[in-house]
Amino acid sequence: MRWDSLYVAGVGTWLPEPLPVAAAVIEGKVDEARVEELAYKSVLVADELSPPEMAVRAADVAIGRAGIPRDEYSVVLHNTSWYQGHPMWPSGSYVGRHSVGAHVPCFEIQQRCNGALGSIELAGAHLASGISTGSAALLTTGDRFVAPAIDRWHCHPQSAVADGGTAAVLSAVGGFARVVATSTAVDNTLEQVNRGLRPFSELPPDPAEPFEYTSRYREYVAGPGGGDAAEQLKKVLITACETVLSDAGIGIDDVAVLVIPAVGAGRLSRVLGVPVERTSWDFAASTGHLASGGDQIAGFANLLETGSVSPGDHVMLFGGGGGYTCTAAVLQINEVPDW
């Protein structure tokens, strides 16, 4: 879809100190073979703050940078992948309350690693619908992966999951970057990649037993109908990419930087036909996988903060998450903010 009046007005992060992978090896958290497979330099590991608190801190940065009055915010979409600190608790409402106030509808989105990018379309549609008189939307992510309930180094087949909060402010009025187009491609048969062949359970997992879905993925791929999963996934990725480029009216060579998830050692760049040097992989390799779409917001913020883009540049944010959904967004830089 091509957007006429959707802008990025602010981005912000709250990221803990990175743990070098060499230190993680010495501490016995991961072995050298796994480190080589992941191709990370470090992974963000927090020893304080809940995920919603991280999201609020990131939101404070993004809101301050956007400079939009809080009464102009019409929706908050908080994206999560893991436990938020309390069971059956609306973490999105906490984020909204402590960032833009008590007046704004707040929703928690659990579309896993595609949450934040998918939320661009949801927020854009909300702002264009006239449901609210507000002109701005706040998108946040927040996750913290604490042992023994989850082993960050081995729970995902192609990544180590990282802690942190990110935020972006979208505006229907103006901003430093314009959302030119977005596209979401879907194949819901791939939800079973995360479920495997196991029956549904009646209770949550025992937190003393580390959660992982690598074995579920392997079960599905080895089972009936699972052998085509890799090709199905590739089709979804390529469809999202080709559609957003067509809607934006540009080619892949016109994309100055491709902001990709911190998974698969950056191999997504090859699937999309972009040299890894033109992607955000170098930054992603220093953070680990900020699930819920944090990779893309943090990666975009890093481009701006390091002066790695110029006015007129097209930047593609590219994400995907269990389900399987994949969202691509083409942005054009109007100006590089002085942050």
From TrEMBL:
Keyword Acyltransferase: yes
Domain Beta-ketoacyl-[acyl-carrier-protein] synthase III C-terminal intervals: 245-333
A GO BP annotation: secondary metabolite biosynthetic process
CDD domains cross-referenced by the UniProt entry: init_cond_enzymes
One Pfam family linked to the record: ACP_syn_III_C
Keyword Transferase: yes
Keyword annotations: Acyltransferase, Transferase
Superkingdom to which the source organism belongs: Bacteria
Record-level Gene Ontology MF annotations: acyltransferase activity
Entry-linked InterPro entries: ACP_syn_III_C, Thiolase-like
Protein name: 3-oxoacyl-[acyl-carrier-protein] synthase-3
Classification of source organism: Bacteria, Bacillati, Actinomycetota, Actinomycetes, Pseudonocardiales
